[in-house]
Amino acid sequence: MCSRCKRLYPLGSRCEPCASAAARRREQKRKHTRPSAWARGYDSSYIKARAAILAAQPLCALCNSRPATTADHIVPLSRGGTNDIENLRPACGPCNFSRGNRTA
Fold first, then answer.
1. What does the pLDDT look like over 30-70, one tens digit per residue?
2. Residue 88 CB partners (closer than 8 Å, separation 6+)
3. Tens digit of pLDDT for each residue in 73-86?
4. What does 36-97 look like in DSSP terms, one character per residue?
């Protein structure tokens, strides 16, 4: 019996149509995964600039109340920004993630 559609099927846990549909779903999910940080532009220059920014200013530049744990791009990479230290500011996770890719 097929575990998905409950049709009688002699071999395996799924009939051929359900197995094919499951394979298509897996392939679609694999295609829509997020690229790696390196592929999105967060390279060694970003890592060095982030460390310098967080060492220089320990508080979030957006809310000034929580400790900074991330470096926020003033002009996002997706909008033509760079990883230069002039384009970064310290931010806590909630403030940085709520901004998305908007320009400051």
1. 777 778 888 888 999 999 999 999 999 999 999 999 999 99
2. 49, 50, 53, 71, 72, 73, 74
3. 999 998 999 999 99
4. PTTTTT--HHHHHHHHHHHHH--B-TTTSSSB--EEEESS-GGGT----GGGEEEE-HHHHH
- The helix or strand, by DSSP H or E, that contains position 23, with its residue range, turns out to be helix 16-31
Domains and CATH numbers, the chain: 44-99 (1.10.30.50)
Which residues are within 8 A (CB) of 19 and not within 5 positions of it... i.e. 6 or more apart? 12
Please report where in the chains the tokens 């392939």 appear, as a residue.
27
Q: Is 21 exposed, middle or buried (0-12, 13-18, 19+ CB in 10 A)?
A: middle
**Average pLDDT for 5-24:** 82
Alpha-carbon distances of 64 from 7, 28, 49, 90, 103, rounded to whole Å: 61, 42, 20, 10, 19
Q: Is the pLDDT of residue 19 over 90?
A: no
